[in-house]
Amino acid sequence: MDKHAPAKGWLGKLGPGLITGAADDDPSGIATYSQAGAQFRYGMLWTLLLAYPLMVGIQAVSAHIGRVSGHGLATNIRRHFPAWLLYTLVALLLLANTINIAADIAAMGEAASMVLGGGAHWYAAGAGVLSAVLQVMLPYRSYVRVLKWLTLALLAYVATTLTLKLPWPAILHAAVLPSLHWNKDYITTVVAIFGTTISPYLFFWQASQEVEDLHADPDARPLKHATHQASEQLKRIKIDTVTGMGFSNLVAMCIMLTTAATLGAHGITHIASSAQAAEALRPIAGDFAFALFSMGIIGTGLLAVPVLAGSAAYAIAGAMRWNNSLELQLAGARKFYAIIIGATLVGTALCFTAIDPIQALFWSAVVNGVIAVPVMVVVMLLAVRPAVMGALVISRRLRVLGWLCTAVMALAVLAMFATLG
């Protein structure tokens, strides 16, 4: 049987893009979208409509680099850019991801405590250890199946939205004809939304997962050396990425709608965490909505923490020329797995210190937005280099989308600094 025959059905084409998109709606993202909905009600929906084509573009470019070159982003950056740039980007990625892991694990602990009772810290510790063990013990193919099933947890937010009666004419007007404001809170929220939606760790993860899929198929080769496979594989990447990012933005929109129609409508305008958003929902939207929202936090956290830790490990291992693959046993990639375990456990440990990782949720999204700009510039330059891509440099359409995404993020960050000044 030809392993490169077209996948049977639409679902067969979903993989790295779907998991990447679902991981984008992690507990830190849920907190950011909840804060935006509570504070500005429907006034931030336009950011998600704008972000969708942009994130499709930059994520597709990242996936192309991985599948075409046969290497992750860090390895390609190491080969084609100065060492200081590589180490700076990787260090910032590790810092941002560890903060995100801490915030996500803390939110999972709080959500589990609210639903099941008991100490939030111990649930957080259990979630962190479970995540690290699964990444180390399960082979890549098995672990990917687990991650795909966990994407279903995001349907909790779609279900929560369906339990509410929403003013759709007002929602459509706010989304299509928004009222824009030039002040610190508004601009910072815009940057936070873009930062949590278009995050650097997602670029590294999707590119690396394409390389993992490549290695998992003994008959596959990097597309620049097997151009006859390019048409089918690039079509699959397009379907996978468009679907995954669409799913991600739909869920983000549902979270924003839910909190806008409940919390924002009742004067609750400050949300410090996703768990607080769930708790605040209970007296307004009922126990069912509260339970759905809370269980979604736990499910998305279990999906996102491995992506955060894994993307950091891929980046560091690629920069340091270490073996890096979730398909390898622990003995064959000890340094790679050490980064995964270390980032996960450090993030978990932060939940037990005086540092409040929940307070860092919103600002970690802002930090991601700032870091994303230089990373996107590097990604776009890699994607048009024949030395990286061979004859399969990205199309003009992807170039336009990718550079437009970079420009929008840069403008948002500059506007944030201008308003802070």
Automatic annotation (TrEMBL):
User: What are its GO biological-process terms?
Assistant: iron ion transmembrane transport
Q: What is its main location?
A: membrane
Q: Where are the transmembrane segments?
A: 43-63, 84-108, 120-140, 147-166, 186-205, 246-268, 288-316, 336-355, 361-388, 400-420
Q: Select a single GO molecular function from the record's annotations and give it.
A: manganese ion transmembrane transporter activity
Determine if Transmembrane helix is one of this entry's keywords. yes
* GO cellular component terms, semicolon-separated: plasma membrane
Question: What subcellular compartments does it reside in?
Answer: Membrane
Q: Which UniProt keywords apply?
A: Membrane, Symport, Transmembrane, Transmembrane helix, Transport
User: The organism sits in which domain of life?
Assistant: Bacteria
The topology of this chain with respect to the membrane is: Multi-pass membrane protein
Keyword Glycoprotein attributed: no
Instruction: Kindly provide the name given to this protein in its UniProt entry.
Output: Divalent metal cation transporter
Source organism (scientific name): Duganella alba
